[in-house]
């Protein structure tokens, strides 16, 4: 029996860990490299500084199930389902629930580091080698025997040779850069004029209530140019994120001004976060930037290396699909592996098979900022949404709102979801034109009739 083929994966984030599990399950010998230290050795207080909770939805769950049904069950035991958005008005007194699904479907809030930890634990159980504090600095023989050069904590360079290599080292991927030096890979990177800052809403002091606002909604304070959102954590707290143009946050010159800004725009959220905590957050919490990255093709010409997850397609977080899409990358790639004798062919076929869908979700993610920050309070949008949902209820599976297709229908590729939405939008427009024309014709008819009456 020949030795299993060896795969080196760079980046033990969410996508890299899932990919490592998937390749290991197929019998490949997998080695994972991660620049950061092993989270098990890092002080919990320090890790929480940038712990974001994420929304995992059907596409992500389907990929987890594909890799390991028990793992998906374990994840689902630790999520907080969110059945809709809760819109907070500017007075801080009114909240309005807008359901996500046609039939009570939910997206699910989960702690990012918890998810990463259970994937890493699973890798340990399966004896997958994980080298922490091994940062990729160079890759050679990209399309032959990929050779990864890493630098460890002691500053030593180590070399590892593989049959195949996978880059899942995030938006600022070194792996992608190394591939680009050896092949014709198109690449764009675009910063969006938006910063994000994480804030913390503590658990309700009353242990009976635990949560100070409804945990089963994604809370949104939409204010057009800027917005605040909050997702529940298992301990009763919420992770809240403030999104705004850079010029806005930079125009706020002190923590006192920040508190006043919140008092004017998010009075109820200010009460939940607390003035002192908000002042401290202003002084010390990092401000993240948002960007879109796209690359093509994702594989090297002979199919020896490939990029997946944010390394291939970083998107803005407004559709809650970045990780879900990265997990879907793993499933789509593995299904190609299932249908081919060798990995190379699967890698080569992956790029054209996946491109339209990755382009589609990046576009949708950007467009969804306007939906979350503005449209959710617009009467025309809400009326159209209502019509969309009513038609969805009447014509089950024949009429599907876009959000349903993206978040709950993992069998509809992202690009197909856009096509279906466009065709449905044309039908709604035609319906609107039809209704409008009927009203006008009826009006004209009434005028002519009354004119005839006067004459006779
Ligand atoms: P990453 O998570 O970036 O992991 C890359 C890993 O590679 C890291 O561990 C890094 O340390 C390591 N690495 C980097 N360089 C090297 C190197 N040279 N050598 C070795 N290792 C290296 N997605 C959702 O699906 N739902 C959401 O609700 C959601 N909310 C979000 C909210 C915010 C504010 C943001 C910013 C993103 C959100 N996302 C969400 C997107 C999601 O976080 C990403 O899509 C996802 O983390 C991508 O995973 P990844 O493994 O590809 O990359």
TrEMBL record:
Q: Which UniProt keywords apply?
A: FAD, Flavoprotein, Membrane, Mitochondrion, Mitochondrion outer membrane, Monooxygenase, NADP, Oxidoreductase, Pyridine nucleotide biosynthesis
Q: What Pfam families is this protein classified in?
A: FAD_binding_3 (PF01494)
Its needed co-factors are: FAD
**So which residues are the signal peptide here?**
none
Which superkingdom is the protein from? Eukaryota
Q: What is its EC number?
A: 1.14.13.9
Class of the enzyme per the UniProt entry, highest EC level = oxidoreductase
Reaction catalysed by this chain? L-kynurenine + NADPH + O2 + H(+) = 3-hydroxy-L-kynurenine + NADP(+) + H2O
The protein's predominant localisation is mitochondrion
Q: Where in the cell is it found?
A: Mitochondrion outer membrane
Q: Which InterPro entries match?
A: FAD-bd, FAD/NAD-bd_sf, Kynurenine_monooxygenase
Pathway the protein contributes to: Cofactor biosynthesis; NAD(+) biosynthesis; quinolinate from L-kynurenine: step 1/3
- FAD-binding domain spans which residues? 8-334
- Identify the Gene3D superfamilies for this entry: FAD/NAD(P)-binding domain
Q: What's the family?
A: Belongs to the aromatic-ring hydroxylase family. KMO subfamily.
**Function as written in the Swiss-Prot or TrEMBL entry:** Catalyzes the hydroxylation of L-kynurenine (L-Kyn) to form 3-hydroxy-L-kynurenine (L-3OHKyn). Required for synthesis of quinolinic acid.
Q: Please identify the protein, giving its name as recorded.
A: Kynurenine 3-monooxygenase
What's the name of its gene? Answer: BNA4
């Amino acid at each position: 029996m020949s030795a299993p083929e060896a795969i080196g994966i760079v980046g033990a984030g969410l996508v890299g860990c899932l990919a490592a599990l998937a390749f290991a399950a197929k019998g490949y010998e997998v080695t994972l490299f991660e620049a950061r230290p092993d989270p098990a050795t890092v002080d919990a207080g320090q890790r929480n500084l940038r712990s974001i909770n994420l929304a995992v939805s059907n596409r992500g769950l389907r990929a987890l199930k594909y890799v390991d049904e028990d793992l998906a069950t374990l994840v689902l035991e630790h999520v907080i389902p969110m059945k809709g958005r809760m819109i907070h008005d500017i007075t801080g007194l009114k909240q309005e629930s807008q359901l996500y699904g046609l039939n009570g479907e939910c997206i699910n809030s989960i702690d990012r580091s918890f998810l990463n930890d259970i994937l890493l634990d699973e890798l340990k159980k399966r004896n997958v080698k994980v080298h922490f504090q091994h940062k990729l600095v160079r890759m050679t023989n990209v399309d032959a025997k990929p050779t990864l050069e890493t630098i460890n904590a002691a500053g030593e360079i180590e070399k590892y040779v593989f049959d195949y290599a996978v880059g899942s080292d995030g938006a600022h991927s070194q792996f992608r850069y190394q591939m680009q030096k050896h092949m014709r890979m198109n690449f764009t990177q675009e910063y969006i004029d938006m910063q994000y800052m994480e804030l913390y809403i503590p658990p309700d002091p009353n242990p009976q209530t635990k949560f100070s606002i409804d945990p089963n909604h994604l809370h949104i304070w939409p204010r057009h140019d800027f917005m605040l959102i909050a997702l529940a954590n298992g301990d009763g707290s919420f992770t809240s994120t403030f999104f705004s143009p850079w010029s806005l946050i930079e125009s706020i010159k002190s923590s006192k001004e920040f508190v006043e800004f919140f008092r004017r725009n998010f009075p109820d959220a200010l009460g939940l976060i607390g003035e002192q905590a908000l002042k401290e957050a202003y002084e010390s919490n990092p401000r993240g930037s948002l960007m879109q990255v796209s690359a093509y093709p994702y594989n090297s010409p002979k199919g020896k290396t490939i990029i997946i997850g944010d390394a291939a397609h970083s998107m803005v977080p407004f559709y809650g699909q970045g990780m879900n899409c990265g997990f879907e990358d793993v499933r789509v790639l593995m299904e190609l592996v299932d249908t081919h004798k060798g990995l190379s062919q699967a890698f080569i076929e992956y790029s054209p098979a996946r491109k339209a869908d990755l382009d589609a979700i990046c576009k949708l993610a950007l467009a969804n900022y306007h939906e979350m920050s503005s449209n959710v309070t617009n009467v025309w949008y809400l009326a159209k949404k209502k019509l969309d949902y009513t038609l969805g209820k009447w014509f089950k599976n024949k009429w599907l709102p876009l959000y349903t297709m993206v978040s709950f229908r993992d069998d509809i590729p992202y690009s197909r979801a856009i096509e279906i939405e466009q065709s449905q939008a044309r039908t709604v427009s035609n319906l609107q034109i039809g209704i409008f024309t009927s009203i006008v014709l009826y009006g004209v008819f009434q005028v002519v009739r009354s004119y005839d009456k006067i004459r006779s």
